[in-house]
Amino acid sequence: MRGIKKVLVAITAVGLASTVAACSSSGSSSDKKPIATVKDLSGGVSTSVALDANFVKALTSLKLAPGLVGKATMPTAGTVTFPITGGNVTVYKKGKVTPYVQGTIRHDGSGLSLKGGNTTVTLENFVIDPGNNSKLTGDVLANGKSVVKGATLFDLDGSTLQPITVSGNIATLTGTRVLVSKDAAALLDKTFNTTAVTGGLLVGVATLKVKVA
């Protein structure tokens, strides 16, 4: 039971981390004891995003056709799901270490594509950084050729998080808003020769599911 509680603390902090500002620290993480640690997230399960209707309309107006890449699925209409393939999360007492949530949540081998005319942009291998200024990074390809690796694609806003729920051995945290980053907006505008993609555009609402036992 104690192990499950620690996991719940950790994944809750993943979502909440995006709502807190940087706080000062009197020492490094090496001399501070974490209050929760999830050393291996390779057991999954997934991060899903329920796409915002206005985001879909924006893509349509730009004549951009979205698609799924690799292991990404759309189990229900309007919701895309990316399997969690690895990572780790460590949570420290707030104010003792900055950022107090550290780690990564990896989604290797899946992603999204946007096709406009003869150009297809692929966003894949997502990594969630749950620390201060929570974000999602990933690799960008254009027509199959690498453009940039580890780019900041989406900003994560956890201010609308709902209470965590547990069913069997699956803990679910939903409510984090996924927003197009300024860097990603600039890249897409340049690639598709438009000025319509803006930083802060709401992509959808994320749901994180992980195994707790």
Walk me through the structure.
The protein has one domain (2-211). The chain is an alpha+beta fold. It is built from 3 helices and 13 strands; from the N terminus they run H-E-E-H-E-E-E-E-E-E-E-E-E-E-H-E. Strands 1, 2, 3, 4, 5, 6, 7, 8, 9, 10, 11, 12 and 13 form a 13-stranded antiparallel β-sheet that branches. The N and C termini lie close together (9 Å).
Structural class: alpha+beta
The helix/strand series, from N terminus to C terminus, equals HEEHEEEEEEEEEEHE
Mean pLDDT: 86
- The amount of beta strand, in percent, is over 45%
Number of strands: 13
Rg, alpha carbons: 17 Å
Low-confidence stretches: 20-26
Overall domain count: 1
The share of residues in helices is 10-25%
Number of helices: 3
N-to-C CA distance: 9 Å
- Anisotropy-based shape: globular
User: What's the main sheet like?
Assistant: 13 strands, antiparallel
